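Appendix B. Raw example, untouched.
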Amino acid sequence: MTDPRHKWSDPVRCEADDTANGCAQTERRCLACGLVKITVHPPQGLPWTEWRTGDAGQYQIQLSATPPCIPGH
């Protein structure tokens, strides 16, 4: 049986000029399923977490919980 928990890569920092929302971001990819965890760092206020299932440039969404790890998807 496999462990259904995410195993996150080292963080990658994206500067505000390189993001669609204009905020700096830190991204980590799950090594098992490929889900990307994005911490958005606004210039004012508290950071929040968003998620992306594909490569850079695809739609990212804010959810109330972490999506499950489904290896191979």
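End of appendix B.
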